[in-house]
């Protein structure tokens, strides 16, 4: 029987299985300050230890300010961060803290550190753990009680095995198009519940052509289609990413060779093994812009705000509520929607390639006077790399704010927030009501589309801006 | 989790129906990062005189208590068994409510009428935290409630008996606890403790894992 990549990784990690439940071994546990405190206290209360502290890695990302990471003014935020510090000390867990050189959004630093490896299981008390699937790892988000369970046992109980869903992306992306456009187009096509109960595997020429950064963007938003996890089979691009550069936790030498031999077996034997399968053509994708309050409410930048009764996957009433919240009138061309704030960052698009793409658009141009543009690197490493390449100068000269690393305006737990009715072009992953600040209106786009909107002061087809040259 | 086999303690009686989790622990305390320290926050808006409830970050610092509230009666001091009316713990799913009851020193909660004593989620959370929820027929519950704050009760989970040590001698009732929960409580097992029984399987999985899977020391 042909097997999928997902089944292979799952089967390798079964510790014990009964009729209705499976105990899975967890190879990597990532933690951050928000969802871990009660889990550690649970351990304390029961007098338990972290079973294998070397498999748990911590960072602070959600609460840290990006103007000066060291200056957390909000007392409850400060306490959450300090609690994580204490917990890591007490339980012997490695913490990548601010200004240590390796801090960043948990899903950005995993790959950078060489922790994210093909064929591993990775969990974190955070739904965007799906990001790590870009390496062929089975990676998914868990709750606080499960965080405690993994800390204590290095395992997790799972109900019945999810089904597998193959998403094949054929063709080639046109210039100016980005991985973000692919994943938004996928969610637009299958809906926000389209992958519920499944583990998605992305494959096909358009996926194979992507860098690791691009693959991470795609897998990141698997959760926005309802998937338990997203996967991409490891290949030479994956192996090169892991073996090159400064990845302290990655295998090296002979051990790496053995790993590579193993990783080469990690692929879906035949597409017929998928329980479900859809095909997209990358060459048909235009720059995507979300207009509503869930990531499936998406149209082409050349399109218009839809009529409420013509919105796929939403009732007219839901669509009307979304239009109302977003302050939009059906029929308005997307390119006529003005933006107040541009946010480039997050675990979706806060990596070096994203910043390079944004810089390409911003080089020699100016952010419109009506727009505030924040550029927030996903990690300290990304920040330093961008500065080494002079990207920060390009951003500053364009009039954008160059920040320190963290989740920032992706969810507004730190001071970076939209004010009510402010409208953003954001490279993050959720356009839910209030996600970027109470009353804020979020449009999800790619980094180059966000940069183009910053310059124009409204949404604009980045392809036409790039065609004009500098 | 601490095993629950037999327990003897004093009761404290809250003679209210439909006590919701907001009342058990107000929402502002959910900002806390700890899983401990909720004991003094139990019934915080009822237990202290106005303005006396602790701040979320200083749970042990509080103003004067309300002497009329059941928890503050002299006879209730040191009570470990909470006696409540129907539908205790309704409202939100916050596990903090169970943490508050348990961390205030209670090992069991007794409510009237089988299937009606507790809100479902509260009951599940209670078992998960080693707090025994007991539902008694109404007459038996009345007997205990009338014995009042400070009355002594023994709960024998092994024998599934509850005994009220009254002035006129002992009265013993039968209690009913689902077998899986009883097994967990008797052995002090929580989900983690149960998984740890599979330690040999976990270790053997680790023993056969390839070398590359262990992170290199940073
Ligand atoms: S960047 Fe946003 S989505 Fe990613 S981990 Fe942070 S808050 Fe979550």
Blueprint (SSEs and pairs):
The complex is a heterodimer of chains A (470) and B (218).
Chain A: H1 5-12, E1 14-17, E2 22-25, E3 28-31, H2 37-46, E4 56-59, H3 75-91, E5 94-96, H4 106-112, E6 121-124, E7 138-141, H5 144-153, E8 155-158, E9 163-170, H6 179-190, E10 198-203, H7 205-208, H8 212-220, E11 229-231, H9 236-243, H10 253-263, E12 276-281, E13 288-290, E14 298-300, H11 316-326, E15 341-344, H12 346-349, H13 352-362, E16 372-375, H14 380-388, H15 391-398, E17 401-402, E18 423-426, E19 441-444, H16 447-456, H17 462-467
Parallel strand pairs in A: 3-4, 3-6, 4-5, 6-7, 9-10, 9-12, 10-11, 15-16, 15-18, 16-17, 18-19
Antiparallel strand pairs in A: 1-2, 2-8, 13-14
Helix pairs in contact in A: 2-5, 6-8, 13-15, 13-16
Chain B: E1 6-13, H1 21-24, H2 44-47, E2 81-83, H3 96-103, E3 108-112, H4 120-128, E4 132-136, H5 138-147, E5 152-156, E6 161-166, E7 169-174, H6 179-187, H7 191-196, H8 199-207
Parallel strand pairs in B: 1-2, 2-3, 3-4
Antiparallel strand pairs in B: 1-5, 5-6, 6-7
Bound molecules: iron/sulfur cluster.
Residues 61-62, 105, 107, 126, 128, 346-347, 407, 410-411, 428-429 of chain A line the site of iron/sulfur cluster (SF4).
Describe the structure.
The complex is a heterodimer of chains A (470) and B (218). Chain A has helices spanning 5-12, 37-46, 75-91, 106-112, 144-153, 179-190, 205-208, 212-220, 236-243, 253-263, 316-326, 346-349, 352-362, 380-388, 391-398, 447-456, 462-467, and strands at residues 14-17, 22-25, 28-31, 56-59, 94-96, 121-124, 138-141, 155-158, 163-170, 198-203, 229-231, 276-281, 288-290, 298-300, 341-344, 372-375, 401-402, 423-426, 441-444. Chain A is an alpha/beta fold and 470 residues long. In chain A, the strands form five sheets. Chain A has a five-stranded parallel sheet. A five-stranded parallel sheet of chain A has the order 17-16-15-18-19. A four-stranded parallel sheet of chain A has the order 11-10-9-12. In chain A, strand 4 (56-59), helix 3 (75-91) and strand 5 (94-96) form a beta-alpha-beta unit. In chain A, 59% of the residues are buried. The model of chain A has no long low-confidence stretch (mean pLDDT 95). Chain B has 218 residues and is α/β, with parallel strands linked by helices. Chain B contains eight helices and seven strands, in the order βααβαβαβαβββααα. Chain B has helices at residues 21-24, 44-47, 96-103, 120-128, 138-147, 179-187, 191-196, 199-207; strands spanning 6-13, 81-83, 108-112, 132-136, 152-156, 161-166, 169-174. Chain B has a seven-stranded mixed sheet. The longest helix of chain B is centred in the middle third of the chain and has 10 residues, at 138-147. Chain B is globular and about 65 Å long. The model of chain B has no long low-confidence stretch (mean pLDDT 91). The A-B interface holds A 13, 15-16, 23, 25, 27-28, 37-39, 41-42, 44-46, 48, 54-55, 75-76, 79-80, 83, 94, 113-115, 117, 119-120, 145, 148-149, 152-155, 157, 248-252, 255-256, 258-259, 262 and B 1, 31, 33-36, 56-57, 190-193, 195-196, 198, 201-202, 205-206, 209-218. The structure holds iron/sulfur cluster (SF4). Iron/sulfur cluster is lined by residues 61-62, 105, 107, 126, 128, 346-347, 407, 410-411, 428-429 of chain A.
């Amino acid at each position: 029987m042909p097997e999928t990549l997902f089944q292979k990784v799952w089967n390798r990690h079964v510790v014990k299985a009964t009729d209705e439940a499976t105990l899975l071994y967890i190879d990597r546990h990532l933690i951050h300050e928000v969802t871990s405190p009660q889990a550690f206290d649970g351990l304390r209360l029961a007098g338990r230890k972290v079973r294998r502290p070397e498999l748990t890695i911590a960072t602070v990302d959600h609460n840290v300010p990006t103007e000066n990471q060291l200056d957390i003014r909000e007392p409850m935020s400060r306490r959450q961060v300090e609690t994580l510090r204490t917990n890591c000390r007490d339980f012997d867990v490695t913490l990548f803290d601010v200004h240590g050189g390796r801090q960043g959004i948990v899903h950005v630093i995993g790959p950078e550190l060489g922790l994210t490896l093909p064929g591993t299981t990775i969990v974190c008390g955070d739904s965007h753990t799906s990001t790590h699937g870009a390496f062929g790892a089975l990676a998914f988000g868990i709750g606080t009680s499960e965080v405690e369970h993994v800390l204590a046992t290095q395992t997790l109980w799972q109900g019945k095995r999810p089904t597998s869903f193959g998403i094949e992306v054929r063709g080639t992306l046109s210039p100016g198009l980005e991985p973000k456009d692919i994943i938004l187009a996928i969610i637009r096509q299958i809906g926000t519940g389209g992958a519920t109960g499944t583990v998605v595997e992305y494959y096909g020429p358009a996926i194979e052509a992507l860098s690791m950064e691009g693959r991470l963007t795609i897998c990141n938003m698997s959760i926005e289609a309802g998937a338990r996890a997203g996967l991409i089979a490891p290949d030479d691009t994956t192996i090169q990413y892991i073996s090159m550069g400064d990845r302290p936790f990655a295998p090296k030498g002979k051990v790496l060779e053995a790993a590579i031999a193993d990783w080469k077996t990690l692929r879906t034997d035949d597409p017929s093994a998928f329980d479900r399968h859809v095909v997209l053509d990358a060459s048909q994708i235009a720059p995507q812009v979300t207009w509503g309050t869930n990531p499936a409410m998406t149209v082409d930048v050349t399109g218009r705000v839809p009529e409420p009764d013509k919105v796929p996957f939403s009732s007219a009433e839901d669509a009307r509520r979304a239009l109302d919240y977003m302050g939009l009138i059906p029929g308005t061309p997307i390119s006529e929607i003005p933006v107040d704030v541009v946010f480039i960052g997050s675990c979706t698009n806060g990596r070096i390639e994203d910043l390079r793409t944004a810089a390409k658009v911003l080089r020699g141009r100016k952010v419109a006077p009506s727009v505030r543009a924040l550029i927030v690197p996903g990690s300290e490493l990304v920040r330093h790399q961008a500065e080494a390449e002079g990207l920060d100068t390009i951003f500053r000269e364009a009039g954008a704010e160059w920040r320190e690393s963290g989740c920032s305006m992706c969810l507004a737990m730190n001071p970076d927030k939209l004010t009510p009715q402010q409208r953003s072009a954001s490279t993050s992953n959720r356009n839910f009501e209030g996600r970027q600040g109470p009353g804020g209106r979020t449009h999800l786009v790619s980094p180059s589309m966000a940069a183009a909107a910053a310059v124009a002061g409204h949404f604009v087809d980045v392809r036409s801006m790039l065609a004009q040259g500098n | 989790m601490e095993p629950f086999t037999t327990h003897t303690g004093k009761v404290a009686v809250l003679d209210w129906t439909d006590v919701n989790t907001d009342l058990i622990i107000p929402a502002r305390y959910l900002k806390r990062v700890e899983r401990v320290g909720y004991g003094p926050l139990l019934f915080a808006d009822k237990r202290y005189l106005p303005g006396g409830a602790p701040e979320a970050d200083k749970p042990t610092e509080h103003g004067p208590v309300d002497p009329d509230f059941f928890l503050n009666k002299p006879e209730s001091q040191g009570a470990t068994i909470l006696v409540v009316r129907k539908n205790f713990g309704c409202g939100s799913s916050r596990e903090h409510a169970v943490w508050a009851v348990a961390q205030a020193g209670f090992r069991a909660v007794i409510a009237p009428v089988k299937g009606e004593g507790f809100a479902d989620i509260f009951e599940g959370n209670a078992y998960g935290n080693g707090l025994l929820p007991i539902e008694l027929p109404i007459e038996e519950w009345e007997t205990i409630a009338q014995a009042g704050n400070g009355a002594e009760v023994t709960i024998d989970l092994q024998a599934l008996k509850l005994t009220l040590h009254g002035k006129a001698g002992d009265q013993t009732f039968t209690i009913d606890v689902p077998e899986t929960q009883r097994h967990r409580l008797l052995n002090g097992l929580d989900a983690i403790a149960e998984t740890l029984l599979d330690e040999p399987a976990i270790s053997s999985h680790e023993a056969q894992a390839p070398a590359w899977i262990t992170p290199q020391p940073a």
